[in-house]
Structure formats: C-alpha cells, structure tokens
C-alpha cells in the first residue's frame, strides 16, 4: 500500500529549486510577503505560494486544477510547513493567503472550490483544513493509497 501524497516533499523540492536559482517568484498582489510561482504539473497549471525567511521556505501552499465540483472549477490544495516552524499557525496562514491571492487573480471569473484530501491520521493537517475550508466533509478510502481520508471542500467567490 502506497502512502498519500505528502506536501512536505514539495516544500523540500521547491526549496532546492529556489536555492539553485531555477525558480522565478512574483510577490503577492494582496500580500507582498507571499511569493507565487506558477508552473505546470502533469499538464495542468500549478499555483504555489510560499512564505520565506530570507531564502528559506517556511510555508508552502500549492493549488492544482482538479476537474469540477458541483458545477464549478475545483482546485486541489496541498500545504506544508518546515518542521522548525510548525505549531505557529503558518499552515493556516499560507493556505488563507494563497486562496486570497487566487480569488484576486480570478476576479471576474466564476466561483471555484478548493479541496484538501487528508489522511485521517494527520491530525494537524485536518485541523488546518477544518478551520480554513470547514464545511461538509466526506470520509472515504483514498484510491492511490487505500488509506482512509477526509475531503474538505469550500466554494470561494471571486467578486464578479
């Protein structure tokens, strides 16, 4: 049985790429202390938002289109915080900041959903998703890993 995707690996990979100079970052439009990198993952645009301490990535939230949910575009979210910076609210902060930047960037477009699929064993991440995304949850068996997971999804307006 394989493991569920761990966004901590994305944070580490992002950090390595940042240090080698192979990433271009833009400052957030709403929050100048948030940085954005847009690339493609499996042919889909990926929006990655980070908080930095110097050149060190302390928190990361990544959003990738994942079809439609209830007739609206759906973005799968993953988030991670560098271990030394955990338990300081940074996961909630970067997830909220990323969603705010997306809402601003998608202004005038239809509403969209953000979803997070989290292992039932990941209490810290479940707490973040419950607070930031809230709403109705669905518990299911993750197809890739076969593990029990909880899906959080929330609709966000774009101020059309």
CATH topology: Aminopeptidase
**CATH homologous superfamily title:** Gcn5-related N-acetyltransferase (GNAT)
Tell me about the largest β-sheet. Answer: 8 strands, mixed
Biggest sheet, spatial arrangement of strands = 1-2-3-4-5-6-8-7
Distance between the termini: 44 Å
Which architecture name does CATH use? 3-Layer(aba) Sandwich
- Quickly name the level 1 CATH class: Alpha Beta
**Domain unit count:** 1
H and E string = HEEEEEHEHEE
- Low-confidence spans: none
Give me the count of strands. Answer: 8
Class based on secondary structure composition and strand pairing:
alpha+beta
Q: How much helicity do the residues have?
A: 25-40%
* Percentage of β-strand residues: 35-45%
